[in-house]
Design brief:
Number of domains: 2
Distance between the termini: 81 Å
Structural class: alpha/beta
CATH architecture of the largest domain: 3-Layer(aba) Sandwich
Shape: globular
Order of helices and strands: HEHEHEHEEHEHEHEHEEHEEHEEHE
Number of strands: 15
Strand content: 15-25%
CATH superfamily of the largest domain: Response regulator
CATH class of the largest domain: Alpha Beta
CATH topology of the largest domain: Rossmann fold
Helix content: 25-40%
Strand order of the largest sheet: 12-10-9-8-6-7-15
Radius of gyration: 24 Å
Length: about 375
């Protein structure tokens, strides 16, 4: 009898535990935001849209800007989103993209250059899912690519930096020597020299997208050689912090980074991904989405500059704003000839402008940039 009683007691405890587990699951809100890497409970009929990020969404930089766009999509009727942050480029990204497709995502945005080949491979396995890869160039029957002409915003921030430097040495902390980053540094330098032909832009490569410590140290190395303005193509605000600690000015990237260096932050080249993501999701919802190679300009609102810091004089603000309106009206083209390379050779002749093919394959620095493209 004692054994029977013990067995019954054990069964009752197991039953109670199971009941507790069931009630906890039922209490979970149906539309609760999923943790990073998990799928939200999508209402029946909702379009599930996935986003893959190379760095943390709290980086205040690149992935943060993309995630603001995702949140705008989440607010659309009939749409639920999921995301995975800090996904390394390579095999890990292919696994994450595959898992999203398996979980039912019908539109997936992969937001880093190194996700290009994994995106195309997964697209072939899931023909009913649409894929868009950021900053790449490959397409498939169900996969396109996209980017914004952030180099237009970089030109404007270069103008601000060129107007504000006293030593005519501007530091540029850059991630990887790929066309996207080289193109941005060149546009920045062209903006600098449009207002200050004597200034030079010194580039240092970190070979990382997101490493706050490395990026901050790279900025310090530029400050050590006399730079009094620090710009960046990096995801963290580390370079901004280094500039403020040394009493230099700074130019941010991806988002308004003024909160990290309020005494130094002149402005920033920023993204507004919401206008693009909402457009693509709307097309997926109404059945008009197709795999395209899209490169939107400043006139669409996808790229812009952050508000100026209080240290920027009104005349500098006005000069930059005039150039901005000219870019929007397509009266000012950033890469319009004559444009010379570091050796002083004319690469884009007078009367000509760089083609998109030339911009997408850019592997040389313009005159005024100090550094190697390797």
């Amino acid at each position: 009898m004692k054994r029977i009683f013990t067995l019954l007691l054990a069964l009752l405890c197991l039953g109670a535990l199971a009941a507790c587990g069931d009630s906890k699951e039922e209490a979970k809100p149906e539309n609760a935001q999923a943790p990073a890497g998990e799928t939200a409970q999508a209402p029946a009929g909702d379009l599930l849209v996935g986003f893959v990020y190379v760095s943390p969404v709290g980086d205040a930089g690149y992935s943060y800007a993309h995630d603001l766009g995702r949140k705008a999509v989440e607010d659309m009727e009939g749409v639920t989103t999921m995301y995975q942050e800090a996904v390394p480029e390579g095999p890990d990204s292919e696994r994450v993209i595959t898992n999203m497709a398996r979980k039912g995502a019908k539109l997936i945005f992969t937001t880093s250059y190194g996700y290009m080949d994994p995106t195309i491979r997964v697209a072939k396995e899931f023909p009913e899912t649409s894929f868009m890869h950021c900053s790449g160039f490959k397409t498939a029957d169900n996969a396109g690519n996209y980017f914004g002409r952030i180099y237009q915003a970089r030109y404007l921030t270069g103008m601000a930096a060129g107007a504000m430097t006293k030593k005519n040495i501007i530091g540029y902390v850059a991630a990887f020597p790929i066309p996207e980053v080289i193109r941005g540094a060149n546009a920045f330098a062209l903006g600098v020299r449009a207002v200050n032909p004597e200034a030079q832009v010194r580039v240092v490569w970190t070979k990382t997208w997101y490493d706050p410590t490395t990026e901050k140290e790279a900025a310090k190395s530029l400050l050590d050689v006399g730079a009094d303005v620090i710009a960046q193509h990096q995801d963290s605000p580390g370079p901004q912090e280094a500039a403020q600690e040394r009493g230099a000015y700074s130019i941010g990237y991806n988002s308004d980074m003024s909160q990290f260096a309020p005494k130094s932050h002149l402005t920033a080249a920023i993204w507004n991904w919401s206008v693009f993501y909402k457009d693509q999701v709307e097309k997926k919802l109404n059945g008009t989405w197709k795999p395209e190679s899209l490169w939107w300009g400043m006139e669409t609102g996808i790229v812009d500059i952050a508000p100026f810091g209080p240290m920027v004089p009104e005349e500098v603000k006005a000069q930059v704003e005039t150039a901005k309106q000219q870019i929007i009206a397509k009266e000012l083209v950033v890469f319009a000839g004559p444009v010379k390379n570091q050796k002083g050779e004319v690469v884009i002749p007078e009367g000509q402008t760089a083609t998109d093919e030339q911009l997408l394959g850019m592997n040389w620095f313009v005159q005024g940039v100090v550094g190697s493209t390797e």
